[in-house]
Design a protein that fits this description.
The complex is a heterodimer of chains A (310) and B (407). With 310 residues, chain A is an alpha/beta fold. Chain A has three domains: 1-35; 39-163, no CATH class; 170-310, no CATH class. Chain A has helices at 3-32, 111-114, 128-131, 263-270, 280-287; strands at residues 41-42, 48-53, 61-66, 70-77, 81-85, 92-97, 100-105, 142-148, 155-162, 165-168, 175-182, 185-188, 191-202, 205-208, 211-221, 224-227, 232-240, 243-245, 248-249, 253-259, 291-299, 302-305. Chain B folds into three domains: 3-121, no CATH class; 153-271, no CATH class; 284-406. Chain B contains eleven helices and five strands. Chain B has helices at 3-15, 21-36, 40-46, 50-64, 66-72, 98-119, 127-183, 213-229, 276-284, 286-340, 344-406, and strands spanning 76-77, 90-91, 204-207, 240-253, 256-269. Chain B has a three-stranded antiparallel β-sheet with strand order 3-5-4, covered by helices on one side. A two-stranded antiparallel ribbon of chain B has the order 1-2. In chain B, helix 1 runs antiparallel to helix 2, helix 1 (3-15) crosses helix 4 (50-64) and helix 7 (127-183) packs across helix 8 (213-229). Chain B is flat and about 95 Å long. Classes of the chains: A alpha/beta (310), B mainly alpha (407). The A-B interface holds A 1, 5, 8-9, 11-23, 25-27, 29-30, 33, 35, 37, 114, 124, 126-128, 131 and B 328, 331-332, 335-336, 339, 343, 345-346, 348-363, 366, 369-370, 374.
Chain lengths: 310, 407
C-alpha cells in the first residue's frame, strides 16, 4: 500500500470518527429536548407521532395498502388529520393527490423512493430514517385517520398484509373494499347504500351496528359476527362451521333468510292478503328492502345477533 | 577585455606549445563554449589579464599533455603567489619544445619579478588577492567544463561498449547453439563452458551507467579483455546452461531519458536426440500424460480467470462504492444544512451522518482499489511464477527421461 493510500485511510478514519461523534452528541441533545429523530413529536406513552392535517386537501377517497400496521379510520372527529404512530418515514409513502389520499408501504432501498417531490404528503426525511429502519419493529405501529363532518368520503379501499383494520362512525354513502391478509376487521356504526367487499384470509370479521346495503364477504380462517345489524337478508355459508342466528344453530348455510324478522314478515307467512290500516306506517317501513349480505367462511362460524329480539 | 580578445590571446598562448592546430582549435572551442555560459558582466568583472590567460593555457597543456611534459622533468610554478590558499600546480615541459621553454622562461621571469616585488615593502597589498581569486575561479571553471566534457565522453563510450557487448554476446550464444548440434559429439567434454550456474531462475539485472559507472566500467573492461582472450563456446555434455539476453530500455524520468541495460538470464538446454525407446514410451504414455497436462493447464486457466474476475469485480465494486457513497454523503450534508435552519440538532445529526458516510466511502474505496490494483496483479505474478516453475519442472522431467532412455 502506497503512502497516498495510507494518507487517504487516515483521512477516512478521521471523517468516520468525527461523523459518529457528531451523531452521538446530536442524538443525546435531541433526547434532552424531547425530539425524536424519526417523528415530529413524542406522546406521553413514548410513541413517536407524525401527523398531517387533511382539512385543506378536501379528500373524498382513501387508498391504503400497507404491511405490519394497524389502520383506524374514525369519523366524527373535530378535525381531519392523519396520524402515523411509531412508523419510520422511510418505509411508507403518503400522498394526497386529486382528492385521494394514498398510503402504501414501500421498499426503503428502492432508489425511486428516495426522490419524493410532491406538493402534499411525505417526502425525504433524511438519511437517518434509513439507518433506523428496524427501530419500530418491536412496537405496535398504527395509522389513525380522523375524519371530521366536513369531509365526505365516497370510497375507502384498505389492503393490509398484517394488522387490524377498524372503521367507525361513517355515515356517508361510501364504497368499501377491504382485503386483510392476517388480522381482524371491525366495522362499527357504518351506514352506506353502496357496495361493501370484504376479504379476510386469517382473522375475524366483526360488523357492529352497521347498515351495509350490499355486502359480499369471504373469510378463510376466522369467525364472522354481525351484531345489532339492520334487517338483512343473508346468503351465507360455512364449509367447516355453522351459522348461528342469536345462538340458534342454522346448519352450515343460510339462504335468503331475512333477519331479524319483522311483523310484516310473519303476517306474510301466515296470511299474505291481510292488511290493516293501523299497520300502514309500519308497512312502508317494512316494504323497504333489507340489506343483502352474501359470503362464506371456510374455517369458522357465522354469528348473527339481533338487538330487536332482545 | 572582450571574450573574443581573450580567446585570441589564449589561441596565441596555446600556439606557443608543440601541439597541433586542431588541438588548439579544439581547446579554444571548449573555452568558447565555457565562456558562453559566463555573462559579459561577470567576465568583465573578472577582467582576466594576459598572465591569467597564459596560466590557463599552461593548465590546459598540463592536463592534456601531461606525459609530454614529464619528459622534461622541469617544474613550473603556475601559481603566482605560493602563500595563497590555492594549491600550486605544476607543469612539465618537453625539452624539445621551444615554445614551452619560452613559456617556462616567462614564468621564471614572472617569479623573479614577484620575488623583487616581495622584497619591496608593499604599499597596497589588497589588489593582489583579488586578481588571484579571479584567476583561480576561471581556472576552476575551466577545469569543471573540461571534466564535464570528459565525463560525457566516458558515458557515451561506456554506453556504446555495453550495447556492443550485449549484441556480441547474444550473437555468439546463438551461433554456439546453432553449431553445437554439429560440432558436439562428446569428443571434448572437458571444454564445456558453463556460462552461469549461479542461479536457476530467470533474473533481471538493471545496470544504469549513469548511476553505477563503476559497474559499467568493469563491464567495459571485461569486454575489452574478452575481445582479447575470447574463445568460442563449446558445449558437449552440459544439459542446460544459462544465457544472458540483454536489451536497452529507454526510461523517461521527469523529462530526462535514461537508457538502462536489462539483462535476462534464460535457461537453454542441450538438445538430446530422443531414442526410439523414448519416443515409444512417450507415445504410449500420452493417454496418461496428456490429460494430466490438460488438467494442469485448465487449473492454471481457471486461476487466471478467477484472478481476472476478482480484479473486475473489485474494480466495479470500487466504482459503485465511490458513486453511491459520494451521492449519499452529499445528500446527507446538503439535507443536514437545510434542516439545520429548522431543527439544528437534527440537521447536525444529518451532517454527521453525511461526513461519516464520506469517510466510510473513502475507506472502502481505498481498500477495494488496493485489492484490485495491487493485490490481484500480485496474484497474477504468483500464478505466473508457479506456472513457469511447473513448466520448467515438466521440461526437466522430459529431458531427464529423454537422456535416461538414451543411455
Amino acid at each position: 500500500m502506497k503512502a497516498k493510500s495510507i494518507i487517504f485511510l487516515i483521512i477516512a478514519a478521521i471523517l468516520i470518527v468525527g461523523g459518529i461523534v457528531t451523531c452521538i452528541v446530536c442524538n443525546s441533545l435531541a433526547s434532552k429536548s424531547n425530539l425524536n429523530l424519526l417523528s415530529d413529536t413524542v406522546d406521553a406513552q413514548g410513541n413517536a407521532i407524525t401527523s398531517d392535517e387533511l382539512a385543506d386537501y378536501g379528500i373524498t377517497s382513501l387508498g391504503i395498502n400497507m404491511k405490519d400496521i394497524d389502520v383506524n379510520i374514525i369519523s366524527g372527529a373535530k378535525e381531519s388529520y392523519v396520524e402515523f404512530v411509531n412508523i419510520n418515514p422511510a418505509v411508507y409513502d403518503y400522498t394526497v393527490s386529486g382528492y385521494k389520499m394514498t398510503l402504501k408501504t414501500i421498499n426503503p432501498f428502492d432508489i425511486t423512493s428516495l426522490v419524493k417531490f410532491r406538493k402534499n404528503g411525505s417526502g425525504f426525511c433524511g438519511l437517518r430514517s434509513y439507518f433506523f429502519l428496524n427501530k419500530y419493529d418491536k412496537v405496535n405501529s398504527a395509522v389513525n385517520i380522523y375524519i371530521s363532518d366536513d369531509i365526505t368520503l365516497s370510497e375507502i379501499s384498505v389492503k393490509l398484509e398484517n394488522g387490524n383494520v377498524s372503521i367507525k362512525n361513517i355515515n356517508s354513502d361510501c364504497l368499501y373494499d377491504f382485503d386483510v391478509n392476517n388480522g381482524d376487521l371491525k366495522i362499527d356504526s357504518v351506514k352506506t347504500m353502496l357496495e361493501t367487499t370484504i376479504e379476510v384470509k386469517k382473522g375475524n370479521l366483526e360488523i357492529l351496528s352497521s347498515s351495509l346495503r350490499k355486502t359480499d364477504f369471504s373469510v378463510e380462517f376466522g369467525n364472522v359476527t354481525f351484531n345489532d345489524g339492520e334487517r338483512s337478508q343473508y346468503y351465507v355459508s360455512c364449509k367447516s362451521g355453522a351459522v348461528y342466528l342469536d345462538e340458534s344453530e342454522q346448519g352450515d348455510s343460510v339462504e335468503g333468510i331475512i333477519y331479524p324478522e319483522t311483523l310484516n314478515d310473519k303476517t306474510e307467512e301466515s296470511d299474505p292478503e291481510a292488511t290493516t290500516d293501523e299497520n300502514e306506517s309500519e308497512q312502508e317501513e317494512l316494504l323497504s328492502l333489507p340489506d343483502e349480505i352474501k359470503g362464506s367462511v371456510t374455517n369458522g362460524n357465522i354469528y348473527i345477533n339481533s338487538k330487536i329480539n332482545e | 577585455m572582450d571574450k573574443q580578445i581573450f580567446l585570441n590571446i589564449l589561441e596565441q598562448k596555446l600556439s606557443e606549445y608543440p601541439i597541433t592546430a586542431e588541438d588548439i582549435k579544439k581547446h579554444v572551442q571548449d573555452m568558447e563554449k565555457f565562456l558562453a555560459t559566463v555573462s559579459d558582466e561577470d567576465f568583465e568583472s573578472e577582467n582576466p589579464t594576459e598572465e591569467d590567460i597564459e596560466s590557463i593555457a599552461i593548465t590546459v597543456i598540463k592536463r592534456n599533455y601531461g606525459d609530454l611534459a614529464k619528459v622534461q622533468k622541469e617544474e613550473v610554478w603556475v601559481s603566482e603567489d605560493s602563500t595563497e590558499s590555492v594549491e600550486p600546480s605544476f607543469v612539465t615541459q618537453e625539452p624539445e619544445s621551444e615554445a614551452v621553454e619560452e613559456a617556462v622562461q616567462a614564468e621564471e621571469e614572472i617569479k623573479a619579478e614577484e620575488a623583487c616585488v616581495s622584497e619591496i615593502p608593499k604599499e597596497d597589498p589588497a589588489p593582489e588577492p583579488v586578481a588571484e581569486e579571479s584567476k583561480d575561479v576561471l581556472e576552476i571553471l575551466a577545469m569543471e567544463a573540461e571534466e564535464e566534457r570528459k565525463d560525457k565522453e566516458t558515458y557515451e563510450e561506456l554506453k556504446r561498449l555495453a550495447i556492443e557487448r550485449a549484441i556480441a554476446e547474444q550473437d555468439e550464444i546463438i551461433v554456439n547453439i546453432a553449431d553445437e548440434s554439429v560440432v558436439q559429439e562428446k569428443s571434448e567434454p572437458e571444454e564445456a563452458v558453463l556460462v552461469d550456474q549461479k542461479e536457476n531462475d530467470p533474473v533481471i539485472e538493471i545496470v544504469d551507467p549513469m548511476e553505477r559507472p563503476d559497474i559499467a566500467y568493469e563491464e567495459t573492461e571485461a569486454i575489452k579483455n574478452s575481445e582479447v582472450n575470447d574463445k568460442p563456446y563449446t558445449i558437449s555434455d552440459v544439459d542446460e546452461f544459462l544465457v544472458e539476453e540483454a536489451e536497452l530500455v529507454t526510461i523517461d524520468d521527469n523529462g530526462d531519458s535514461y537508457e538502462l541495460k536489462k539483462t535476462k538470464r534464460k535457461k537453454k538446454r542441450e538438445k538430446v536426440k530422443g531414442t526410439p525407446l523414448f519416443w515409444t514410451l512417450f507415445i504410449l504414455t500420452l493417454p496418461i500424460t496428456l490429460p494430466l497436462l490438460l488438467s494442469i493447464a485448465v487449473l492454471f486457466g481457471i486461476a487466471y480467470v478467477a484472478v481476472t474476475g476478482i480484479i473486475i469485480a473489485f474494480a466495479a465494486a470500487m466504482i459503485s462504492c465511490v458513486a453511491i457513497g459520494t451521492a449519499l454523503s452529499l445528500i446527507g450534508i446538503i439535507y443536514g444544512i437545510t434542516e439545520t435552519l429548522t431543527v439544528p440538532v437534527l440537521g447536525a445529526f444529518e451532517i454527521g451522518l453525511g461526513v461519516a458516510i464520506g469517510g466510510i466511502t473513502i475507506l472502502v474505496s481505498v481498500l477495494l482499489y488496493n485489492i484490485a490494483i495491487r493485490f490481484a496483479p500480485f496474484l497474477y505474478k504468483c500464478i505466473t511464477r508457479l506456472a513457469k516453475f511447473v513448466i520448467e519442472k515438466l521440461l526437466d522431467l522430459f529431458y531427464i527421461a529423454k537422456k535416461e532412455c538414451g543411455r
